Amino acid sequence: MNPLVAIIILNWNGWPDTLECLESIFQISYPNFKVIVVDNHSEDHSIQKIREYCQGEIIVQSPFFQYQRNNKPIKIKLLNKEESESNTEIVEDLDLPSNRLLTLIKNDENYGFAKGNNIAIKYALQNLNPDYVLLLNNDTVVNSDFLTKMIQSAEEDVNIGILGPIIYYYECNGRNDVVANLGGIVDISRYPGYYDLIDMSNPEDYSGNIIECDWVSGAALMMKIGDAPIKFLNEKLFFGCEDIDLAILLKEQGYNTIIVLNSHIWHKEGVSRKKRSSDSIKRALMDIKSNLTFLKAHNPHYYWYLPLYLIQIIKIYLMVIMKR
After folding, report:
1. Helix 15-25 to helix 46-54 angle, to the nearest 10 degrees?
2. Helix axes 306-323, 280-298, angle to 10 degrees
């Protein structure tokens, strides 16, 4: 019996990346999954482009796979946010193969990473009863067996709460792959709630199929649902630290976080952040707010660091004055 995985992809003004991600997902070897795309109020015709792709009208080009026609058309179930919060699952949809069905939730505003994903998680828990929820960035491409490998590792240990694959840089095109993310470490006692990546220079130095870590990237984060006490992201963190926050909370409840070394995906690093680069001041303030919220949630002495954040805000204010 293959556990059911709800795969959640958040889209915001990024339909070309989303279509490449979807095509790679619909070609995976794992047989039991449901794909949910959440559109965070895009303004680039994303909904229409996703529809055209599912009808087989857009041929997706990628250095990582050959486009397949044999699973098109893909049936779309389009819901708005309110509809997604009710019991809307259609019984006959359950008989469709995993690569022939897509649920598309259209949000009425950009709710950010955490709430956008939470809307889909809530829908999945109410309607699909999944064993696992996989949060996957729309700017990723997955290996055909990546999910099979993660499920194999997850099923071997009941104490595993979060899993992630090795993430490579997309720009390497699958040749001479360079690791972008091998999981991370965290030390809340250090400013500003210190977190960093595990040394990625020689991943072959790690033996076995898994390594334990403190957190995995939200670009590809799979949660084991079951009796897990926490199933949602912290919505106070609009963009940043959501993945670390979740891993810390689950670790406090006795759940481990791992990277599955034989599970591979490729990530277009920084695409979501580049979309906001046109307003660097707003982005900086958002990052400060998220970091402070994260630190406040996990470090009882967070107020020691408030002067440092104040200095950052003053620097931003001076930048605004100088630009006038």
Report:
1. 30
2. 170
Sequence-distant (6+) residues with CB within 8 A of 129 are: 4
Helix (H, G, I), strand (E, B) or coil at 181: strand
Around Cβ 30, how many Cβ atoms within 10 Å? 20
Instruction: Tell me if 4 sits within 8 A of 129, measured CB to CB.
Output: yes
Please state, as a whole number, how many other Cβ atoms lie within 10 Å of the Cβ of residue 281: 12
234: Cβ–Cβ under 8 A, 6 or more apart, which residues? 114, 242, 245, 246, 293, 297
Ranges of H-type helices in 26-139: 46-54, 81-84, 112-127
Q: Count Cα atoms within 13 angstroms, Cβ side, for 248.
A: 20
For residue range 116-137, what is the model confidence (pLDDT) as tens digits?
999 999 999 999 999 999 999 9
Rounded to two decimals, the pTM is: 0.87
Pairing of strands 220-224, 210-213: unpaired
pLDDT tens figures, 242-272: 999 999 999 999 999 999 999 999 999 765 5
